[in-house]
Amino acid sequence: MKKNINKDEIVKKGNKTLTEFKKFISKGNAMDLAVGVIIGSAFGKIVSSIVDDILMPLIGVLIGGIDFSSLSLKIGNASITYGNFIQNVIDFLIIAVCIFFIVKVMKKLEKKQDKEEEVKKEPNTMLLEEIRDLLKESQNN
């Protein structure tokens, strides 16, 4: 059984979908998400480099040069590389610690900036309070 296809209807639906997509992609949330993904990807490379190139060699020296990634268990023809899992867990923990400290430093900087902004606002607040008090005094007289 052949179904009649209305080309105008298909074009109309396609144009509507394209318009909806343009609205979606141009919204701030989608753009913020895209920027976040790109920055996150670049930041992930930095953190991975810290872990792989700096921290893991130091940890390797501390634990006697053990490389977990080579640990495996052979069952029949299958090879279970549980060492990779252990290595990935260690990498995750190191990355989590790095991110924890980076976030902690960022929060301190943010608090410092907030305090500086408060100090900047304080003289204005004092001046406004003085003006308010003077106005109350003049109304009472």
Can you characterise this structure?
The protein has about 140 residues and is mostly helical. The chain has helices at about 5-25, 30-60, 80-140, and strands spanning about 75, 80. The chain folds into two domains: about 1-60, no CATH class; about 65-140. It is built from three helices and two strands, in the order ααββα. A two-stranded antiparallel ribbon has the order 1-2. The longest helix is centred in the last third of the chain and has 59 residues, at about 80-140.
In short:
The chain is mainly alpha-helical. The protein has two domains: 1-60, no CATH class; 67-141. Helix content is 81%, strand content 4%.
Outline the secondary-structure elements:
Layout: H1 7-26, H2 28-62, E1 73-75, E2 78-80, H3 82-140
Antiparallel strand pairs: 1-2
Helix pairs in contact: 2-3
